[in-house]
Amino acid sequence: MKLTVIGGGGVRSIFLAKSLAWNAHRINLTEVVFLDNSTENLATFGEIAQHVFRVIRPDIHFSLTQDPQSAIRNANYIITTLRVGGDESRVRDERIALSHNTLGQETTGAAGFAMALRSIPAILDYCRMIEELAAEDAILFNFTNPSGMVTEAIIKSGFKRRVYGICDAPSELIRELPEILGCDESAVQVECYGLNHFSWFSNITVDGVSVSATLAKTPALYEKTTMQYFSPDLVAQCDNQLLNEYLYYYYYRQEALDAIQNAAETRGEQIARINQQMREALQTIDVKQHPEQAFDIWMQHYLCRENSYMQSESQKEKPHPRTPLTLTQFIEEPDTGGYAGVALDILEAVNSSQSKRIVVSLTNNGTLDFLRPDDVIEISCDLSSQGLTPVKPREVPQAQKNMISCVKEYERLAVEAIMTQNRDVAVRALMAHPLIGSWCLATKLVHAYLDDPQYLHWH
């Protein structure tokens, strides 16, 4: 079976290569291709990823390429993980939003719209190639942000293959709960519902017994997990439902905006600076000849990124900061699934008698009855050899319904605007977003983001 990663030269590609290598036997991989349109990225991050993969599975053919046709041809599984426009575009997106006194965060609000503006057309171009060249039963896993909107655009474009949107944020919180609850991971069940980067976790049980109310009052939950960004009083207001970390930008909107505006640099600028320092350091060595040294440079800079995540916005440090590993330690450290875990679980389940609960973005089809059937939602699914069965949440409080409906209206209109290249619909989309909610502001933002020759044909 052939697996292709579109965007395989990204900074996180090393984690993806490790996860695929350690789990290749689960999905009968015989070939892996990392595709990227950047020569520099393939020669640095791609080379490190290739070395990691080949150390673990030298028997499986692994290659790097800039040729999309050869990469996609006969692929059985495709993972898309693109950052169209690179760090420079992210910096611009965030600064434009902040200059209009609204949140500048890469996947949320105005900057999230700008990211979708670049991501969706690029992904749809690749989808046309996938339909033409990939295996007839190929499965697409979209990791490209904003994942839910990109996945919705893929589905609404008429793409005829199976597609799942994947984000590791829900899985990260769920993996943190067993330690707090003092039980095995297999004993915990959670119902996640909502939209990508906009979801809640309800009906949390251990061996079938509800622990939601007790968990919501447990101090360790707010000290050792991504729930550290939220107040127990807020969780009580949310009917003891836990919160996706990105909800911080909504429940603490002014605090987040003030913190970002008062910081010396935006998150995008911080990432761009760290990445540039990393590239400059990697250019001083031959990555292929000195993989250990290249890995050390990558690890050092990656941890600068990872361990500073959401610090400026929340004024809090990550609950589990990572420590540096050598190349050997990294390869030998047990793989937790992480970035590719959900995709691997889905692929393995086809030939397994075991069931598992995962969180993915897919078509609603009535699971959340207050949304349209063709809306894409983020939802817990029970996974078995019979396929994916969305778990209908037992209770969705009216406040959550209102918030989800509002953001879904924005997503729906934003996808329509981008696919039809319509400025008026883009304004309506941003008007609908709760972090914007103003015609004047939405109009100014659309004008600013579309002030580029590539958008002259928008009507």
UniProtKB/TrEMBL annotation:
InterPro entries xref list: Glyco_hydro_4 (IPR001088), Glyco_hydro_4_C (IPR022616), Lactate_DH/Glyco_Ohase_4_C (IPR015955), NAD(P)-bd_dom_sf (IPR036291)
Binding site for substrate: R90, N145
Annotated site residues (Increases basicity of active site Tyr) in this chain: E106
Endpoints of the signal sequence: none
Gene3D superfamilies: Lactate dehydrogenase/glycoside hydrolase, family 4, C-terminal, NAD(P)-binding Rossmann-like Domain
Cofactor details (free text): Binds 1 NAD(+) per subunit.
Molecular-function GO terms, alphabetical: hydrolase activity, hydrolyzing O-glycosyl compounds; metal ion binding; oxidoreductase activity, acting on the CH-OH group of donors, NAD or NADP as acceptor
Domain of life: Bacteria
Similarity-based family: Belongs to the glycosyl hydrolase 4 family.
Binding site for Mn(2+): C167, H197
Protein's name in the database: Glycoside hydrolase
Cofactor(s) annotated in UniProt: NAD(+)
Listed SUPFAM superfamilies: LDH C-terminal domain-like, NAD(P)-binding Rossmann-fold domains
Location of the Glycosyl hydrolase family 4 C-terminal domain: 192-436
Keyword terms: Cobalt, Glycosidase, Hydrolase, Iron, Manganese, Metal-binding, NAD, Nickel
An individual GO BP term: carbohydrate metabolic process
